[in-house]
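Listing S7. Sequence submitted for prediction.
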Amino acid sequence: MQLKEANWIRTYAILSIVVWHCFSCPITKWGLLEPSFFTMIVSAISSFLIPQANMPLFTCLSGYLFAYLYLSEKKSYTTFNGLLKNKFHRLVVPFLVIGTIATAVVPERPLISGIVWGDGSSLWFCMMLFWLTILRWLVLRINSYWVSVLIFSMSVVIYLTNVGIVHWFKNLPIGVLCLGRAFHFYLFFVLGDKLYKYRVHLLSLRYNQKQLMIILIAYILVGILQFWGIHYVSFFCIKLMPIMLIIVVFCIFSIISELTISSQKLGGVISEFCRHSFGIYVLHEAFSWNCYHSQPLLVIFRRYPFIYAFSFTVFTFILCYVVTHMCLKTKIGRYLLS
């Protein structure tokens, strides 16, 4: 069985991360442009649609799929050794192999130390997912209420304290290979787990438009409040935005998946895109970093920022899709990117 809504959510998540790195970051985050009304508008839209680069959304979707596989008692999820072997091949090997290549392509980032500490490679997310999957599996198998509450509470505290606390973990053994980041994102993984368990209620929202409108209005209000300027209100709203967006995205795409369930052609397009999504994620960041830090191209970008960023985002997406499609035709490509 395929989770149709998961395919739609993954499509949105991948598109948003490409837009984040190829459009939003060059304009608002990398210091390539002077602050202006244009950069402020781009920053505001990004904070609404791509809070924290949608890494919380990716993590939540992974928890959603984990719950489906775990509760379905898939063979690799029934024993610890089976799970460890499966996730090592699917997450750790791509992290080490492609991560090394990616950091070599972007020489400004550290290579060996970056991979060890989970920095300097666009694939830190893979290593973090490895730890999250193992940790969540162990928590469910231990089946202790207090262990579950303790780990979840610690994750909430780490998340609310400061995003930068992730870097503090790097000075401890727990920081090795993104384990510190796993604690930071654990609450989103659990949220995905819970959303799957209430999947029926999400799908039923298509018949309850009033509830959906309340959720959307609440999200918009939280988004507005984060720009209010009052420190504690803005801080709370910034932390709340990714959680609210996750709920909104899951609600909307659960409804869309139900409404389009009879369209096999559209479903096939979305499934095919999802098959290429990991490759697009792997390739796009290193490519965008190099192109935006090339001096001749940087001159063009500063003269025509919107046209350049928009054109480059579309071009990057198409190029990464084509390269991924070619790689998936090879045995090693399917092993690393499928």
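Caption to Listing S7: primary sequence and predicted structure tokens for the chain studied. The CA atoms of residues 178 and 243 lie 22 Å apart. The longest helix spans residues 231-259.
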